[in-house]
């Protein structure tokens, strides 16, 4: 399946029995581990803590209660109650009672019309469709989920339910549907020829034309895609005749009908109604196992089961009965007969009254809700309910599905010695009129005596090896054949039959893909066109093996009681055992209908008590298939042996087979085939290895357009080939494509086509490492001294004479290319980890190796000898990588994480070049007992965000337009620094919710969040230090400001720069005794007294208004003024960047510029190092400023989100040189200029367009940055807005809205409250001043170190 976001957090599959449910659960979990699903919507309703973490889906398989036949409606209720209980127990239901969207797939019942799928279920029948990535095969449920990923790509509202049937195949066009706006129930329909209508359900809509979306000018364009219209359902016809379909207006003028695809969308309100039914009404507990245990009544028996159908019971209650009155619906007139009602209700006492009672409740609960149909033009519908339909699909007769689902005639198989089709000799020339070819799926067919497969035949999950011969006639389906061919030299199966071998009982998980020949099994034989459900003596089509039952009974010389021993109560207890009948007198005895499903025809082989081999019992299937396909009468001895055997019916086989064992057999066989294919083809000249060898030693060749690509010379072996590949790759890196090119097409070509194996892909890793070591780290070999070079670069850069390429000769130069190289290495290793399928729990934080961390720090050190030092550090990292991966391939993901960490450390080092822009003037120190207060407004970004993020901001350049704003007439962010008499450090943080965190620190130990991790070792201490950088503690931000300012030592790592360089030098000199240094000594040395640092913010964490960056600026400004240093706003803008790099936040520069600089401004940075941020204020006249204040609103969405993980994700996408990211970055810069023009001109409509475009650009850069609740809020308010965009990089807690009408805050607030959304609306004022600093007398000092 495609690795795109899967829209459902919860997937539940229904199962007919508990054993089936256990097997289905294993299959679902296997798909999860094999990464069938991508990131899905968050399961925790606050959506704040796991923004970029891939959420694990909830996958459940739920059995019908206690083996009851409760129908599709009862099964839906039962599964829904089960899932709802699960979500409650695991705390996935919010305090408001909201739960995630649910996808429910009904796997069907016994699959009587497709017996080969009865054990595993039609949902899991393997199709000859190539599964992406691993050579395996898809199942209908896989393909259905793939289509749903597209159908519901626009999102599914929380609390909604989507029900689907697994015996259908759908091909859906790429239409976007606004599911959040749908009310009631929406059925997905497909327009098909009317001739198919009598076999399915059909929607009759409010118009006779097909209700589907029109392409071209008939499509209603929206900002996020095309809108698909729905039609109201007037009637629902279940398997109506063609005459009735025409008479009731179901057939369109084109001769089509809207056929029911089995997909139903239930809005959240109806889902809530359904969940409450078993709790509120006792009658519904009779179809819900969990309802029986929770409802206060005794557990129901089989007779008490209530059978409800999804369509004829639940859906017919919608829209006031779809044309029926209440009496007709409740009385079942026209919907079902009295006899059928009794049968459906379980034949228990009061069955009819219970069903009527249930219908009465459904009418009251569902009658007011609308029922609509949605049928996108171009949708394709295929049904897999019967063996004939399955065969037509697999033999490529349904052409549109063949291409859509990648169907092939050979999928995951080994076939050797195949001969030409010999079926013509048996079935005449008709078999050759249309050559179709045979389909082989998940099978090993290597009989030494020869192999002949007829046209249109299918062989699946079978193993035929050794000294034997296999012939399969045209149109025959063979499934699971393994034991039977081993009993005879030649196996010849005629045309047009269905042969299936099923293992009985459980199978031990031995790891061996083969089945033991000593284990019991049964082989069933049917004709392709046998009617499994037809009743003997009542329906003329009843029969078996292409003949009526009367003919078959005469041939076998038995009466009907022998075939159906349980079709009636036994006459006495002395029934002849020679007939294989075990009659049991039991009050619970249920007579079975005389259908093929219950006919005891198939002998069990290999179990205790059955005849020994050689008696003919194990060969019964041979004469049965010969009789079915060619009419050959079996010998008398064969018939006698058959009568003496213990025979099973298809229903008995289903009851005695073990689904989990069958699934495991299929998976083990698939693994055996793939392993054998790799092993056998790796040695041949023309095999896979030979092909890869011919392609995988690339040469650097220049194309006509000047680009360099990697091509392959001839084949080589061993070390010679490896060396040639390495040298070719390094030569291509040196003289060919740029590093940006390698991130895209050339690398993908080498990765996909030239280096297929694990070892070969490692060569690319080696080549990149050697290239970085030999080329990148040698680029500054003859560089000048550090101080001289920096002075020259500063002068040249300021004068505009130094470009980025020229800067690459300097100290930071190799780091830019090296960071990109490490990002590429991380990407290659991550892909390699996925290939070897060794998943490591991605939710746990990587503990970085201490030795690797020290090497990274050495990489970032500049000055004299830096080149050699960096080269040695990189060699050490490379040696560690080799050692880690030598014997433990599973550590490849760990190596990828370390290279990823190295990338961001190198970015941090480059950002540190901003220290050259940080300077300060002198000011008088603040006396003891006085305070410095720094306050600042928040910022709102109007366009250009993400272009300010390193490394984008210094590699491509960035430009942002934003505003400094007050909320509720106040500057919401501030800091106060007070000089204390006692040498103590007091940290206090007041948060928006009123919480106050205060720490009084007298020693260095008081600063730490916990005791020193002495027992954890070096790696554990390093991990703990990195945790402290996560800013989980409210006072952590202040501590890192003090580290940067020089008051506190940096215990996590050596800081690259310090404002007070002398302090840094002193700290280095005292490094040996730093751990024992007293806090009072540090405060006395750098402050001259104690410090009390208070911070506050009226904005919640993760608001998207730049709170943390602006707060760092206020703290630094107040600290500087208190200690006698005066910093300009420009210096503070750059200093904040350094502090955020220390904190490992890694954000851009627009936040602090937006808040510390007042009013409207356009901020920008040019490409090149050192990074320099400049800004231009945009004067607004009073009338224009007032207009913006009347039209701009901030809406707090109620849920804050942190941006740090998103920032890293965007940086990785940038390093991957995604074309859409590069184009979007260019558009962001242009958008910032357009927004600046609109802002100054007071053009409301132009700014609205800029905001809407900015929103789309943000979603392109970070697709997961806009949560579902924000999208819903935007949808609700879009009619009153000219433009809306989430604030900040992380989707923000605040939504910026530009209203159509001025002074619209009250109306917007009422709309939000009317939709029961936990959000509030705030007006804003443009702050023209920005950062404000004042000195005042300290008031209300803590009783520690008073004045």
TrEMBL record:
Residues 1236-1312 form the GHMP kinase C-terminal domain. Keywords: ATP-binding, Kinase, Nucleotide-binding, Transferase. Residues 1082-1159 form the GHMP kinase N-terminal domain. Residues 102-605 form the GDP-fucose pyrophosphorylase domain. Coiled coil: none annotated. GO terms for biological process: GDP-L-fucose salvage. GO terms for molecular function: ATP binding; fucokinase activity. Belongs to the GHMP kinase family. This is L-fucose kinase. It comes from Nannochloropsis salina CCMP1776.
